[in-house]
Amino acid sequence: MAPEAPGFSSIVRMQAVQKFFGAVHALRDIDIAIGRNEIVGLIGDNGAGKSTLIKVMTGVLAPTSGKIFIRDREIQPNEYSVRMAHDLSIETVYQDKSLAEKQPLWRNFFVGRQIANRFGFIDIKREKEVAQQILIDVIGFRGVGITVDSTVGKLSGGERQGIAIGRAMHYNADLIVLDEPTAALGVAEVRKVIDFVRRIKQSGRACIYIEHNLAHVHEVADRLVVLDRGRIVSQINPRDMTVAELTEYLIGLQHKG
Amino acid sequence: MAQGSGESFAERFEALPIIIVYALLLALFMYLSPGVFLAPFIYTTFLSTLPPLILLAVGLTFVIGAGEIDLCFPSIIAFSGFIFAVLFKEYDLGWIAVLAGLASGILVGFINGLIIAKVGIPSFMTTLGTQFFWAGMATVLSGGKSYALRGAEESSVWQWIVGRPFASVTSVPWLQEVSIQALWTAVIVGFLWLILTRHRFGEHTLFIGDSNDVSRVVGIDVDREKIKIFTLMGFLAACAAIILTLENKNFFGNQGQGYLLTAIASVLIGGTSIFGGRATILGTVFGCLIIGMIEAGLVAAGLTGAWVRTVQGLIFLIAIIFYLYVDEPQRRQAFLARLGSFGRFGGARAAE
């Protein structure tokens, strides 16, 4: 993973980014940089702009204004897309929106970047082989009755998150963005996801982790970025604050008006 | 997750249930009307009459597989049929008339796709509107006239598109009746089967049918793929129009109307999900064979033509209910809940 001398100061950096939805000012003056080997927790109330921020960061939405740099190189907003983000080693795992229910796992691993010949026909055999490797080596699903032909609809919530995160890790992403990966999961499944997040860091990658559950994010994050009404209001080192203090602080934000 | 595999029985053998139903129905008709169903002529008739239905239904397999619907294709059959017929007959343009007919279908489909993907109007509404528009255009431009293409069988266009290649080389009567459009249809269907099952475009179609949101975040250009799907549908409807017009040696304004129910029914009988995300070309072809066979079988059994639609409609409903309960029991509640609200075809997918 070559942690030495990466040749850039941040994987992704947003500078003075604004995003409007009609009259709604969803993101205001966003300045944020994500470095290597870092797990950044993005927290804030519903509607604070967390999802919008990562959608702009990962090419799903174009910013209204501002600049985005990936590995210190400026990206033209009109050229930026999910596919370009993939090419630049940025992967996103959305809560419930990363996998297509009725499709088999092998198709879910490769859709959008199929192993195909130049006429666009998919090499199904090869895709299934690689999918099998991902399933066993990256995700660690061994002997749990899940094969590359299983459809997503048959998996539990935790298994789905595991698959989605495993897919992101397979593509050697430098930055993996997780949008509420533990929402609606049981306790044991939450543990698995948190383990996955730790492994992201151990393998030399960075991660942005959006989470409602402060205990979860406090446990794994190196840095917490607090969003309130579209603005970054503070950056916190979780070592400096207990979960209870953090909760208190966030509630305080709501009452400041 | 029994059998160490996530595939259900139906998934492993594409279209297996419908192939069994087809075989059973065929046996039933052979038993009821042996004079018709044990002679070769009924099957050579199918070879000349079923291609338009199959082409339409295969196109709809992509559309419905993508979670959309197209109600406009009967009007493409009218409009493209008119463009072809008038250029072929009045202007004697031969193959140029064929190209113009195809181009007009592609254009209509492209416009449908543009309205659906870029303006964002649900496909149900869009194609309901464009259906009336293009049917109206065909009537206005043709002045309500029909065009009899007398003598068309002398032309190379007729010979190549709907000719009878064995008519002059054999003395076997049923072989003489084998029509070449069956071959073209088989080639197109085989190619589109490859596209749906192993091409990027087919995969994108099914992912879009599964969920537009997921498709966007995995990097599929949803708008562009939808435009392509409706353009493909327009092209296939134009192919059907030209084959139909040449086979009948006649164009008339409402020649497409009978296909609305039969084509959609064929797709859904075949096992393509009404919710999108799962589609089978093979199933669709067998759906078409069943629909066609019912028509011939009921008439042969002495029932009037009025019964045909009734029975087809009934089988259509039985098939939908069967797939709903057997293949997607988890969707049953959602489906029943939706029955109260207006049709879900191509509409808001917020519930996904």
Structure description:
- The complex is a heterodimer of chains A (about 260) and B (about 350).
- By secondary structure, chain A is an alpha/beta fold.
- Chain A is built from eight helices and ten strands.
- The termini of chain A are far apart.
- Chain B has 17 helices and two strands.
- A two-stranded antiparallel ribbon of chain B has the order 1-2.
Topology:
The complex is a heterodimer of chains A (257) and B (352).
Chain A: E1 12-21, E2 24-34, E3 39-43, H1 50-57, E4 65-70, E5 73-75, H2 82-87, E6 90-93, H3 105-110, H4 124-138, H5 157-170, E7 175-179, H6 187-202, E8 206-210, H7 214-220, E9 223-228, E10 231-236, H8 243-256
Parallel strand pairs in A: 3-8, 3-9, 6-7, 7-8
Antiparallel strand pairs in A: 1-2, 1-4, 4-5, 9-10
Helix pairs in contact in A: 5-6
Chain B: H1 9-12, H2 16-32, H3 34-37, H4 41-65, H5 73-89, H6 95-119, H7 123-142, E1 147-148, H8 156-162, H9 173-176, H10 181-198, H11 200-210, H12 212-217, H13 222-248, E2 250-251, H14 259-270, H15 281-300, H16 305-326, H17 332-340
For the structure shown, list the relevant keywords.
heterodimer; A: 257 residues; alpha/beta; Rossmann fold; six-stranded mixed sheet; four-stranded antiparallel sheet; 8 helices; 33% helix; globular; B: 352 residues; mainly alpha; ABC transporter involved in vitamin B12 uptake, BtuC; two-stranded antiparallel sheet; 17 helices; 2 strands; 70% helix; disordered N terminus; disordered C terminus
